[in-house]
Amino acid sequence: MIIFPILILVSFVLYIYYKVMIIRSTDPLTQEYLNSKAKLFLGSFIFFFGINQYVFYQTKLSLFIGIVFIALGIFQARLGWKASKHYQAEYQKHRTSPQS
Prior knowledge:
The structure is a single chain. The chain is an all-alpha fold. The chain has 3 helices and no strands.
């Protein structure tokens, strides 16, 4: 299955992209938002990596390791998703408020 390596690669590239964008940004709110997006893609990377390892090897050991990776990936992606939604709303408030 070629789809999982492609998803792993895309997730990893987007993770690196958002981490680089954090360095380039100077606004702390934007940095937090970009960090939450990076966490989301890190979680998807770990999730797809866990699935790929079980599909590739199909042993009991890879099943247990894959379950751990899938659980950690879901946990990380969920935290990134929640933080992303929070900071997106805060960013919208910040952009619409009058500047002093």
